[in-house]
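Hey, resending since the last one bounced:
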Amino acid sequence: MRKRVGIFGGSFNPVHTGHMIVASYIAGWTDIDEVWLTLSPENPLKRRHDGATDADRLSMLRTACGNSDTLKVCDVELGMPRPSYTVNTLRFLRDRYPECDFTLIIGSDNWKIFDRWHAAEEIIKEFGVTVYPRPGYPVDSRTLPEGVAYADAPTVSLSSTFLRQAISRDMPVRHMVPDGVEQYILQERLYKKPEHEAQQ
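The structure tokens again:
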């Protein structure tokens, strides 16, 4: 039996409960069997306190997904030529895993600008798209074109930017990130300004 896999891409910097709620909903409440949280490459010139390394973000994703049967971590984009276009990722995965049928998962914010994505029509035609709601970006599911499905996942108004800012100010983020992720962030001192800058 073929497996239907949804590709849920993002920088996950850091991964938070909003990401996991969407992924869990789609894997459990739609015809998608597994959701692969696919890590997007970060700018290698970024200063560390502005984010986290690829290895950090990968570790946090793996911690968040744990041993789930339906939520998996996918790191293929980290080794692909840049700029890394989504259509290339999907085609690469289709070739590597011929037993799977892949589709793309995006938020309604990205759907609003999807016509500007590289090879947007090819993505819909070859793979299909599942759109989930994001606060402030309503979508009328009745107007979606063929090949585009709507997943009415719960919305959580939480962003990685908010979390990075909170952590940099020593504000608590427990329950806003999956179990183990907060511990990793604190242990690795992610999103903290270097000591010499903090004292200025």
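The first strand starts at residue 3 and ends at 10.

Sorry for the duplicate.
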